[in-house]
From TrEMBL:
Belongs to the cytochrome P450 family. It is a peripheral membrane protein. Its cofactor is heme. It comes from Bos indicus x Bos taurus. GO terms for cellular component: endoplasmic reticulum membrane. This is Cytochrome P450. GO terms for molecular function: heme binding; iron ion binding; oxidoreductase activity, acting on paired donors, with incorporation or reduction of molecular oxygen, reduced flavin or flavoprotein as one donor, and incorporation of one atom of oxygen.
Length: 490
């Protein structure tokens, strides 16, 4: 038995050396902590909070260093200058998407988020065009959000000011906004299919932020066949895809080629136009995955930000009071807020930006990859090398923000109380892979949050001083801790 262990260890070490030499023969990667055979640097990283481990390693190795997650090298960028150089200055060279096995297992390189090359370019370009046609960034989508905000307000009133967990209520509004774009219609908050869909998105967000998924992404071949939460993730994603396929079939039966009504119609018409093109990227599988991408990005990020935002406002009642004072002065109580109001509400705008900065929703961004062999600073990074950009290091840069660890709307206000922009605000990433729905998300966050604070006083069930704002999970996404609150009608 001991001989077997020694042989396996030696073989593993030889495989590791082979891969190490192969990689370094093709390029000169930045230095980093010495990896262990097979497992790489996994024992030097806190899988419960990877971004914190990266910040500590950056103190020793500087803004550019290499980590091994298993046997795969990952070049890590820490700090505004390094992150900006990759995402903006050399965005084309680093525009490829790095592998994320937990997602790749289902998406198979399709859709917008995890695709590459011509497939990514065509699908992203087409999706942006359709979203704009459907009103993203225009008054038409603003009206939809305003209507949905009123539905959310009515649902919150039904809690009768009693303590409640607003997790799902806060996801219904952004879910319905994106569903109206993709499926043509919104759902009632009591609709069973709608509730199930929202449950899957919430559960998926929690699962992908756990240490287990960090390990799965590092060792997919080893862990794939073992019991674990990745199986629940795959099951949920499969069920979501079934729901999407059913909706597509309904659209196929009623499709008017000359009068598209929603995202699915536009894509189906594109498929029809290219049906004789064997190289077309517009296929049924790509449609299903693209819709899943749009729904996931359009629902969970906004709802999580709203949840975390209300938690922070509970923790800081003095901030909430100032926002409500501005709402009363600019909007009043007899009409819905509009995007025209935002320019006259600098404090509220600053609070929303500070919520996004402070919560650090996607700490290390989604992985990028070198689209070609790249000369980067004094290093040569081979094509395909995974690139990790620490958005935490940008959003919590103490050279830009006076108290990065504190929730302070003053970070986005000048001395006169006017809203102050900063290039460090990369909550939606930046460059070629910036979030497709950034404009929609900004509009939703402003209109939904202002509508809630216009109609309710927030009340905590515990002393605000005892509210813990640390995330319950901080993996791929920062998940806010559980918190009950009361919505008292004003």
């Amino acid at each position: 038995m001991e001989l077997f262990v020694v042989l396996v260890t030696c073989l593993s070490f030889l495989i590791f050396l082979f891969l190490w030499n192969q990689r370094h023969a093709k390029g000169k990667l930045p230095p980093g902590p010495t990896p262990f055979p097979v497992v790489g640097n996994i024992f030097q990283i806190n899988t419960k909070n990877v971004s914190k481990s990266i910040s500590k390693l950056a103190e020793d190795y500087g803004p550019v260093f290499t980590l091994y997650f298993g046997m795969k090298p990952t070049v890590v960028l820490h700090g505004y200058e390094a992150v900006r150089q990759v995402l903006i200055d050399q965005s084309e060279e680093f525009s490829a998407r790095g592998s994320l096995p937990a997602a790749d297992n289902i998406n198979q390189g399709l859709g917008i988020v995890f695709s590459n090359g011509e497939k990514w370019k065509q699908t992203r370009r087409f999706s942006l065009m359709v979203l704009r046609n459907m009103g993203m960034g225009k008054r038409t989508i603003e009206h939809r959000i305003q209507e949905e905000a009123l539905c959310l307000v009515e649902a919150l009133k039904k809690t009768n000011g009693s303590p409640c967990d607003p997790t799902f209520l806060l996801s219904y509004a952004p879910c319905n906004v994106i569903c109206s774009i993709v499926f043509r219609n919104r759902f009632e908050y009591s609709d069973e299919n709608f509730l199930t869909l929202a449950k899957y998105f919430d559960e998926n967000a929690k699962i992908v932020s756990t240490p287990w998924i960090e390990l799965y992404n590092a060792f997919p071949s080893l862990l794939h066949y073992l019991p674990g939460s990745h199986n629940t993730l795959f099951k949920n994603m499969t069920e979501q895809r079934k729901f999407i396929l059913e909706k597509i079939k309904e659209h196929q039966e009623s499709l008017d080629l000359n009068n598209p009504q929603d995202f699915i119609d536009y894509f189906l018409i594109k498929m029809e136009k290219e049906k004789h093109n064997k190289q077309s990227e517009f296929t049924m599988d790509n449609l299903i995955t693209t819709i899943w991408d749009v729904l996931t990005a359009g629902i969970e990020t906004t709802s999580l930000t709203l949840r975390y935002g209300l938690l922070l406002l509970l923790k800081h009642p003095e901030v909430t009071a100032k926002v409500q004072e501005e709402i009363n002065h600019v909007v009043g109580r007899n009409r819905s807020p509009s995007m025209e109001d935002r320019s006259r509400m600098p404090y509220t705008d600053a609070v929303i930006h500070e919520i996004q900065r402070f919560i650090d929703l996607v700490p290390n961004n989604l992985p990028h990859a070198a689209a070609q062999d790249i000369k980067f600073r004094e290093y040569l990074i081979p094509k395909g090398t995974v690139i990790l950009t620490s958005l935490t290091s940008v959003l919590h840069d103490d050279n830009e923000f006076s108290n990065p660890g504190q929730f302070d709307p003053g970070h986005f206000l000048d001395e006169s109380g006017n809203f102050k922009k900063t290039d460090h605000f990369m909550a939606f990433s930046a460059g070629k892979r910036v979030c497709v729905g950034e404009g929609l998300a900004r509009m939703e966050l402003f209109l939904l949050l202002v509508s809630i604070l216009q109609h309710f006083t927030l009340k905590s069930v515990v002393d605000p001083k005892h509210i813990d704002t640390a995330p319950s999970f901080k993996g791929l996404i920062s998940i806010p801790p559980f918190c009950e609150m009361c919505f008292i009608p004003v």
